[in-house]
Amino acid sequence: MQDQHIASAFDRDLEAVQAQIMKMGGLVENAILEAAISLETRDEERAEAVRKADKAIDALEELINEEAARVIALRAPIAVDLRVVLSVIKVSANLERIGDYAKNLAKRTSVLSQMAPVNDSAGALRRMAKEVERMLKDALDAYVARDAELAQDVIDRDIEIDQMYNALFREFLTFMMEDPRNITACMHLHFIAKNIERMGDHVTSIAEQVIYLVTGTIPDEARDKGDKTSVLS
Amino acid sequence: MNDMRIVERDVETKKVKIAAKNVQVYYGTTHAIKDVSVEIEDKTVTAFIGPSGCGKSTFLRCINRMNDTIDICRVTGDIRIDGYDIYDPKVDPVQLRAKVGMVFQKPNPFPKSIYDNVAYGPRIHGLAKNKADLDDIVEKSLRRGAIWDEVKDRLQSPGTGLSGGQQQRLCIARAVATEPEVLLMDEPCSALDPIATAQVEELIDELRTNYSVVIVTHSMQQAARVSQKTAFFHLGNLVEYGETGTIFTNPVDPRTESYITGRIG
Amino acid sequence: MTDASMSPDSAAPKSGLATIDARTRKRNAAEKRFRLYGMAAIGVGLLFLVFLFTSILRSGLPAFTQTVLNIEFVLTSEQFDTAESKMMKTGEYQNIFVAALQDQLEASGLEVAFDSKSIERIVGKPGGTIRRFFLENPDRIGTPVSFELAASSRVDGYFNGRVTRDTIVDSRFLMAADLDLVDALHDAGIIHGAFNWNFITGTDSGVDNPGGAGLGASVIGSFFMMLVVLFLSLPIGVAASIYLEEFAPKNRWTDLIEVNISNLAAVPSIVFGILGLAVFIQFAGMPQSAPLVGGLVLTLMTLPTIIISTRASLAAVPPSIRDAALGVGASKMQSVFHHVLPLAMPGILTGTIIGLAQALGETAPLLLIGMVGFVAREYPEGFVSGFTDANSAMPAQIYTWASRADPGFYEKAWGGIIILLLFLITMNAIAVVLRRRFERRW
């Protein structure tokens, strides 16, 4: 099958909207990394920058939605073109949520930097965030390359994020039980960990969209929920 | 329109109305239809799509043996309606065409009155015993053609005095007047404006409760709106045949996908 | 795109829409000249037409008037018996009449010199008319009967202006001195002009009696001929066309037939005359000079015209109508007769009537089957004998008159042309009316 539409404007529209996704993805990746660094280095200015940058991400999501609606109205896309447009909409929604979580992370960082650090948890969180960022990068690469295998790999890696979260959850519990003065800080850290874990879920959702785009079917096999904290007793 | 009610979709298996097997059509030495086999269901709208010159109109005209009027056209293979081979020498093509109605691309009402247009078919086939019967048939057909309300007061005025969309609906009424079982439509909306097109498409959706409808169309959106099953023809071959929803969201053959997304002519 | 046509010096364009450049001016002039040529051509054509009509009317209208003599005359039964016993009966009646007239004129005391010879020259040939009258009305013998008799053609010519006192040459037909007698009779009211009904309704007369010549018999002859042509050529022509156009397979043979039909339309009509002579008269033994034979010959001539125009009309019916009929389940025959033929009818009718009008005016074929030169003296008796009795036809009659020596026949020929033209105009008008009536929009 040729890649080019006979109507080249159609190709340009699709490419434009996908380029916006890439741009948004880049911004979001940056947000994750910056937020993680600011957490570790207790850098309030950096955190503030992350919070401000979220506006751009939200604006991009709005733009992408408008563009996608326009393509649907004017081009009536079907088959693979329809999946491209639908996936663009869902991916941008996921990216926006990831961006929101990064902003939340930055907010809590500002609060945490007023308090005493809780041993090495910041490092662990940074590693978790870095892993999520790598997953996001791979998911977006898979999107561009239409690589379903890479996307499946990303989905599989989400288990590690969940496991990391489980471990941190237990650790925070221990800290809180050890020293009640840690509770506030640990609660914040816990929420940060939860946010990062949710980021991972959203990245997984993006990878699922890639598989839908390429194969036409949404992978509906039950995702192995590594997050066992809801049943922790 | 497709039945999107998921409960009913594809649960009932419809009866096969037209079964074509290994059909070849030659125009002189040109091999126009290459080994086409397809089973068209009853009480369903089947769309034939494909680029220009791919053979969809030719194949359509095989079903009511209109190709017989072209001297250099030769049809081989098996085409059966309700199990009867329509190319059997014992079959009279004229009788066949009363059972398999046809609507053409350009509306072509006879230059007679509206009444006579619809009544002509039943008259020559002796379907009415007296004038009252004939009046009934005409009214029923015009109602089936969704044009009764617009013309009931002027049945004697000429058929050619109607607008394009009305003329086409009159032609559809004329086609159903002979009580056919199959309706063949060769790009029925291509000469109509969007509103007339929408009216005819609505009519086609109503018709499928009684007839097996086969429609050739250049517009993919129309095929998507109107049909339950779609067949994609390319260079004389039947490339893919399946449920319309599947063809337009996730077709199997890459050639089908190329055509419907506008990547090849 | 549009920039390419702008002038390179990129100032505002020099030629706006309102200014006309040289090329456009030349083109406009050429178009105007062409229009003028067209109008000039039409003008020349119209001029010739006007000239034609004026000369026809000028020469032919006199044929419709006649100089007549009003005479009251008594035939005694002895004169009747004497005349009937003689061999040259009409001559005898002539003499009786001239003698009686002479007596009357002498008695009336006309102041002009005359004798029986001059009376004879003036009076023309009333013998036959008088005889016929008394044979049909024997009870009027012995009683005074008023006759209105045609004067001689020379006298007629004198009143028409064909013969004047300056141009008259003394001959046995009319002498200059007779003109005084004629004028005196005219002043006395005995001679006057009247409408010549006999020209339209009467039969032809002998070569020596132009005054009595009439076109009536030939009109009947033409009528019967046209009946034959209509009832033979229309069905055959239309059926042949329908077969060739709709049903015949398209192969070399049908192409050959088509070419031949087109060529037949261009064959000189005299060839058809020879064919008619050979086949119908010599081989089949049909009566010579009969309208039936003339009709058959003209049928052969008209068939190609009708076939060609019918084929064109059938071909002009759009194939969508045929497809629609077939789609509803009509057979080929039903689609042709119920749909195609009614739509082609205007064209067919027009072609037929034009063919008939053409046939009406054909002379050359009639030449060879004997109608030219035949003197149509009598009306046919019944309908069937109308076909088989020898007769003349209008164009043949006109030709015959034009070739006779007597100048009196000259204006009869022109008069015949006027009547023929009237028929042709009427037929073409009928063609237009019928076409309008049957025209259907599709």
Topology:
The complex is a heterotrimer of chains A (233), B (265) and C (442).
Chain A: H1 8-41, H2 44-75, H3 79-112, H4 121-145, H5 148-178, H6 183-215
Chain B: E1 16-27, E2 30-41, E3 45-49, H1 56-63, E4 73-81, E5 84-85, H2 93-99, E6 100-103, H3 114-125, H4 131-144, H5 148-151, H6 164-176, E7 182-186, H7 194-207, E8 212-216, H8 220-226, E9 229-234, E10 237-243, H9 244-249, H10 254-260
Parallel strand pairs in B: 3-8, 3-9, 6-7, 7-8
Antiparallel strand pairs in B: 1-2, 1-4, 4-5, 9-10
Chain C: H1 22-60, E1 65-74, H2 77-85, H3 89-108, H4 116-123, H5 127-136, E2 144-150, H6 153-160, H7 176-187, E3 191-195, H8 197-201, H9 216-247, H10 252-264, H11 269-283, H12 291-316, H13 319-327, H14 332-360, H15 364-369, H16 383-388, H17 394-402, H18 407-438
Antiparallel strand pairs in C: 1-2, 1-3
Helix pairs in contact in C: 1-18, 2-3, 3-4, 3-5, 9-12, 9-14, 11-12, 12-14, 13-14, 14-18, 17-18
Structural class by sheet pairing and helices of chain B: alpha/beta
- Major sheet details of chain B: 6 strands, mixed
Helix content bin of chain C: 55-70%
Radius of gyration of chain C using CA atoms only: 32 Å
Which protein chains are joined by the largest interface, and how many residues does each one contribute? B-C, 29 and 20 residues
| Fraction of residues in β-strands of chain C | under 5%
What is the number of strand segments of chain C? 3
Shape of chain C: extended
Distance between the termini of chain B: 25 Å
Distance between the termini of chain C: 43 Å
Give helix and strand order of chain C, one letter per element, not per position. Answer: HEHHHHEHHEHHHHHHHHHHH
* Content of β-strand of chain B: 25-35%
Instruction: Give the helix level of chain B as a range of percent.
Output: 25-40%
